[in-house]
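Dissemination and training. As part of the outreach component of the grant, students in the summer workshop were shown how a complex can be specified as a set of sequence lines and then modelled as a single object. The example used during the hands-on session is reproduced here so that future cohorts can follow it. Participants entered these lines:
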Amino acid sequence: MHFAVIVFPGSNCDHDAYHVFRHILDVPVDFVWHRETDLKKYDAIIIPGGFSYGDYLRTGAIARFSPVMESVIKEAHAGKPVFGICNGFQILIESGLLPGALIINKDVRFLSQDVTLEVDSTDSIYTRSLKKGRKLTMPIAHKQGNFIADENTFKMLEDEDRIAFRYKKGKNGNPNGSTNRIAGILNKKRNVLGMMPHPERAVESILGSDDGIDIFKSMIGVA
Amino acid sequence: MKAKIYISYKEGILDPQGKTVSHALDAIGIKKINSVRMGKYIEMEFNGISKDKASEITDESCRKLLANPNTETYSFEIVEE
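and obtained this result:
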């Protein structure tokens, strides 16, 4: 499985993602500059975290019109895995590949801390080797991660089992205030995943948690 | 000629920034404010086109980039300098 890690001006988790594939999982991976327009040779696409275009206007709003996004959208519609993490999730929402919106955190602050997630849907390439309800610890680092949508969208996401991860229940479990504790969602075809927490920053015990690696192992089918 | 564009959250969309500012106003003794909603104000300048054309371009800009149709609404006025 050959991975592309898309690099926008202002991406800053691109190297973390690259490290996962190149050094931990030992699978082929390339950085792909946002001006590229052909992603045919890749089997899966990572839209990494960061502050693409300085978060100007709205998070992800300008990156969405980068030349590479046309190919990302095309490959996503063709069924290729497209995985957006943090700013990558914001870009996928702006591009219309995922529904809803990510607005400013409920306490209007940038949050940089560990969270505990619960695996909800296991019906995707990303979660197929995880157990439903399993708890995963990994960091969040964002100011606009508060997931909202209209009622019909929530109903659709729940009915179609498209919520991949939720923040855990209880006090401070859901620090950004996302509705229904939503941390990560899938598209209708289940090949596109967007999530605010950073699994690529939780892949070795020296980082504080290696829970995130199982999502990437699940993608390449070696879990 | 100039477009003055106002972008605001749709009704029903939580606006934690507006809420925080509202609390701050209350804390410094400014009362009688029911609620505060924060938005964006954008200006665009045009040269040598008709008012209708400017309006058309502004509307397209809002639809395609400046406002997020999921969470925001926009309005604008075209003014002569």
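The helical segments of chain B are 16-27, 51-66. Students were then asked to discuss how this feature might be tested experimentally.
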